[in-house]
């Protein structure tokens, strides 16, 4: 059982090194733009709300592209 735990610890340490810090940042940006857009719609400013929803789609797409690119890059390394 001790060897299994040490192998798991090595794997998790490796994963921590590989994890991309920009993905959570992209998720927070996406959530922030979504929140601002919903608030804008609620206040009756639909023109700004539509612009923010489009910005959310761009931010979300960039985050997904970053995740896929990182997975592809590190997938070949291991």
UniProtKB/TrEMBL annotation:
It holds the Pfam family HIG_1_N. GO terms for molecular function: kinase activity. The keyword Kinase applies. Keywords: Kinase, Membrane, Mitochondrion, Receptor, Transferase, Transmembrane, Transmembrane helix. InterPro entries: Hypoxia_induced_domain, RCF1. Signal peptide: none annotated. PANTHER family: HIG1 DOMAIN FAMILY MEMBER 1A, HYPOXIA-INDUCBILE GENE 1 HIG1 -RELATED. This is Putative inactive receptor kinase.
